[in-house]
UniProtKB/TrEMBL annotation:
MF annotations from Gene Ontology: isomerase activity; oxidoreductase activity
Alphabetized PROSITE patterns for the sequence: THIOREDOXIN_2 (PS51352)
Gene3D superfamilies named in the record: Glutaredoxin
Key words of the record: Isomerase, Signal
Protein name, UniProt field: Thiol-disulfide isomerase/thioredoxin
Superkingdom of the source species: Bacteria
Organism annotation: Hymenobacter luteus
Domain Thioredoxin: 282-446
Keyword Phosphoprotein: no
Pfam families: Redoxin
């Protein structure tokens, strides 16, 4: 079984609601809302396939999900569908006519209720946001394979490049005029000629699994792609510069409640990003990391100088439980560690969370550990922003992204710092990521 396919199945089985690119955060909150408990005379979500819509910034961000029912028609699982990905959610509580669906490892939920026959309404709530974060949500029961975007849907088969998988050189620009490069991958869905899948890779991560359609709006052709992974709702609306021609695309990128950027894409099969291993490094004269952070297990601490790591190759993973790219990497690292730890390799996960309360942060990371079967050590390293991460690791030039992966040799010296992670939604780029990781470990173990 190809490794990418195996990981996709593992993601679904883990119940992970997962990039944002660079998984960046500068927010913290200790607010939570109680999870409702199942009550008598509850109105349960009907089983079947639904087309959900998040209403934000005057746009609709659509996604599909399936409700699986058990005894007495009570829902036992909800599966978010993003292209070929299925994210299983199994923390579902209903009281009266209201249902709370916790979104995997993330401190977020869909809170919904029925709204007439085959309709739902409610909100997507992020409990760990710095400011109150609620996005209106509606859903309509549908067939198994509906068009994700409404409108005059056109077949992607009319574009040979999309049938084969098209690669684009992309530039994103934020509302302040700052730009960053990306590589876009858009392809015709393998099972539905009118559907599209794809993603965008940047130097700090990828936008994970995107899905959508080629539609005509106002007489112009648009490539429409979206995703909802529990932590982020994304919409990419790209207008073709010329009818029937995908060589040039330009449009808007909407992220959740308020994020907005524009983007332009040029068809380019040779498009590539700067080397992820050369974006940051150690400061002059520095060879080793020097840290000691509290373990998520009460009373313990973790340092690369601990006897457990002496004489071993050590991977230091900079992550946050709120970060979908980090969860993609964790979903690779967790089973990899179980298969390879006997070779003399260890992993230390440094968690940067959206709270200043160490106990709350430890609880969030412990939930991630339990849901994703993480066997390696996890520590509470600080608050969830890149500046805080950089300050906590003063030997490193700068932490540019969550996740960042640091490779230590048997002497404890840093040999490589890899910024970002290309997850399974990137296809061949993910395969390359895994191959490079294994090559680096093999080389360090052979020394």
């Amino acid at each position: 079984m190809p490794v990418a396919i195996a990981l996709r199945k593992a993601i679904a089985g883990a119940g992970l609601a997962l990039a944002a690119v660079a998984c960046q955060s500068n927010s913290s909150s200790e607010k939570t809302e109680p999870v409702e408990t199942t009550g008598a005379n509850a109105t349960y979500l009907p089983a079947g396939t639904w087309r959900g819509v998040l209403a934000a910034q005057g746009q609709e961000i659509p996604f599909l999900f399936d409700v699986e029912a058990g005894n007495n028609n009570q829902p036992v699982a909800v599966y978010l569908r993003n292209g070929e990905e299925r994210l299983k959610l199994d923390e579902i509580k209903t009281v009266g006519d209201s249902t709370t669906i916790r979104l995997g490892v993330f401190d977020a939920a869909l809170v919904v209720r029925t709204d007439g026959a085959d309709k739902l309404k409610g909100a997507w709530v992020k409990y760990d946001a710095k400011d109150p974060y609620r996005v209106a949500f509606t859903a309509t029961k549908t067939t198994d394979t509906p068009a994700l975007f409404a409108g005059d849907t056109k077949s992607a088969s009319m574009f040979g490049d999309l049938r084969r998988g098209a690669t684009f050189r992309v530039e994103f620009r934020d509302d302040e005029g700052k730009t960053y490069p990306a590589v876009g991958i858009i392809r015709q869905d393998s099972t539905n000629s009118s559907a599209l899948t794809g993603t965008f890779l940047t130097t700090t991560g990828d936008y994970r699994y995107l899905a959508g359609n080629l539609v005509t709006k106002g007489g112009q052709e648009h490539i429409m792609l979206s995703t909802f992974d529990g932590s982020h709702g994304f919409l990419f609306d790209g207008k073709l510069a010329k009818p029937g021609n995908i060589n040039q695309i330009s449009g808007d990128f909407y992220s959740g409640k308020s994020g907005h950027e524009t983007w332009t894409a040029t068809l380019d099969p040779n498009a590539k990003l700067p080397d992820a291993n050369a974006l940051t490094g150690m400061k002059p004269g520095q060879k080793k990391l020097d840290f000691k952070f509290p373990s998520i297990m009460e009373g313990g601490s973790i340092s690369p100088a601990d006897p457990k790591y002496k004489g071993k190759v050590v991977v230091v993973q900079i992550l946050g439980s709120w970060c979908p790219n980090c969860m993609d990497e964790t979903n690779f690292l967790a089973p990899w560690y179980e298969k390879n730890k006997q070779r003399g390799v260890e992993i230390i996960g440094l968690g940067y969370e959206r709270t200043t309360d160490q106990k709350v942060a430890a609880q969030k990371l412990l939930k991630m550990k339990q849901r994703m079967n993480v066997g390696y050590d996890l520590a509470v390293a600080g608050e969830a922003n890149k500046d805080a991460a950089s300050q906590s690791l003063p030997q490193v030039q700068k932490v540019l992204a969550f996740p960042t992966t640091i490779f230590l040799d048997k002497k404890g010296e840093v040999r490589k710092i890899h910024t970002g992670f290309s997850g399974p939604g990137t296809g061949k780029y993910y395969e390359q990521e895994v191959a490079e990781f294994n090559k680096t470990i093999d080389q360090l173990l052979a020394e």
